[in-house]
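Hey all, sorry for the wall of text incoming. These are the two entities for the joint prediction.
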Amino acid sequence: MKIEKEPISGQYGKFKIDGIDYRIYWEEAGQGIPLVCLHTAGSDGRQYRALLNDKKILERFRVIVFDMPWHGKSSPPENAKIQNYKLSTDFYISQIMSFINGLELIKPVVMGCSIGGRIILHLAIHFPDKFRALIGLQSAGHLDPYYDISWLHRQDVHGGEVCGGIAYGLMAPTSPESDKFETMWHYMQGGPGIFKGDLFFYKFDGNIGNEIKKIDNSKCPIYLLTGEYDYSATPEETKSLADTIGIEMIKMKNVGHFPMSENPKEFLEYLHPVLNKIS
Amino acid sequence: MFKSLTEKNERRNQLSIMAQYLNTNFMINTVENEYLINIEKGVVTSVQEGPFVMPSYVFKLTAPKDEWLKFFQPIPQPGSHDIIAMLRRKVLKFEGDLHPLMSHLLYFKLLLASLRPVENKNEN
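and here's what came out:
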């Protein structure tokens, strides 16, 4: 029987992050300009499956997607115990820089969604010279909590069920059901407390105030794209961010919080012109 | 407005599987009216329309009628497509013991979305 093979290869490697060894899993495809993609809170790199299969992009870009520690196929650190996992801004930056340095990537493009869309702003503030360009999907400078996130990690509530339920609503009613289901399924497979721990960065530690004004688009071009159905990072919030930086934002129709995963076809229509500018 | 939740049980078999251990009752308030909804093993067994004198329920969802109508559109607008989106806009309020709701969040989202016209792809 002939199978339909994808051009993606996966690999494990040990990376030192803040002095501790982490076994990290990543996938990549294509050749050319390195394009490192960051998944959303509580999920993993499978969100970028369409990008890793897009022939047009793979002709010019080496697309690389890693699972954050504690997520997907990446392991918790050695000697880890069940703990109150909390993603801090510093640790998030450290893992991205360790990954990039570990793979010896020179001036990659980094694209992140949600928490990834937030951390690219921190990268733009602190390391603008290190990147060819930064792309933020569903980016907002800060987010105030609008529901009680303690429900995401309670022993009397199945974490997969509740995290999946939260993720489902963040997607557009117009996105294909099969892609929405897969996106939700990734959330249903997360470890206990990991989604909630990532939101510590998203709703508290990673909030950016006036520091946004330090972003200099001439040092490193920034592109911001946000789906219209996202109520976590709304198009209005991305617009306000873009206005502060002095750039245009792209509002994407018919998608929500997970454009690359919930409706890849629609998303790629918006992404191709951006990548054309970068390459 | 919510009375047809029982009528639609037959085509919601798959939904019931998501809540086969769920027995609860909850109130939906539209400001103009109230609906007391009883669920047994994931199946809506009754929907009573108010007004009530001494209703007993586990939790309550309150939103103005026009907000519920926006939610019931075949393809709702952004911000009206999900109950947490409505919560974010502060047009919907969750009250009471939220454990049955939060432990079956997707079930309740799809249960309410099942009141949208059938052609909506969102419905399971």
